Amino acid sequence: MTNLVFLTGASRGFGRAIALQLYQHVSPLRLVLSARDVNGLNLTKLLSEQQEVKVKPGISIAPCDLSDMSQIDLTFRDLFSQYKSTRFSKVTFIHNAGSLGPLGAAQLHSSGTAAAYLAFNVGSTIGISSLFMNAFLGDSSVQVRLINISSKAAIEPFKSYSLYCAGKAARDSYLAVVAAENSNSNLKTLNYAPGPMDTDMATEIRQSSSVDKDLRTLYQRMHSEGTLVSPEDSASKLVGLLKEDAFISGSHIDYYDLPSI
Hints:
Layout: E1 3-8, H1 13-25, E2 29-34, H2 38-49, E3 58-61, H3 69-84, E4 90-95, H4 111-136, E5 143-149, H5 162-181, E6 187-193, H6 200-207, H7 213-225, H8 231-244, E7 251-254
Parallel strand pairs: 1-2, 1-4, 2-3, 4-5, 5-6, 6-7
């Protein structure tokens, strides 16, 4: 039977790289892409469909602004209900959407800034996950997978990254709890840290005066030396993990934990 995969943050960067790898290497596949940038989603869809594969996956877009909690509920409740009655061998949700957020010393962030950041980066993850589990956990014959795109910042402090670290740690912890609560079910969760990738986020880190000097210098050096991780390489490792499906539920796996491709 077909694999069904939902992917947020699919309009650019690592999300687009994941979509392209899924389209090329998972078959049979039904892929649903979500982000607020409709043009970016359509480009990801077009680039995916231009790849040569033996069996063309079904691919669609579901635009949604994850900073709008009411829109999240309406969009994903309806989206999941569309697929709930269809038989799939595995249903996967990949939480890739997220933001670096305001940078700088921890004491600079107000309660309002923190609340808005965590609502988008943590609240949306929890809300969508709840809808997803309620929709697909009822059938024990279907494998259900909940994937969080994490970061080393979830398990290690980085100066000037207080909100980012807090958000990533919260998402990791949430998926670990979900794994513990569903240890005897058909659900597995995974926190995957993709490594320091050459994306728009890395550009912001290299250029922002709000970033800790040592961290900014590190990213500048990695960029000049060409040692930043390519999104395509990291996405390939993630898709490999998902296909093998041998990871321990609730675990945190880093790009550098895995063998080179």
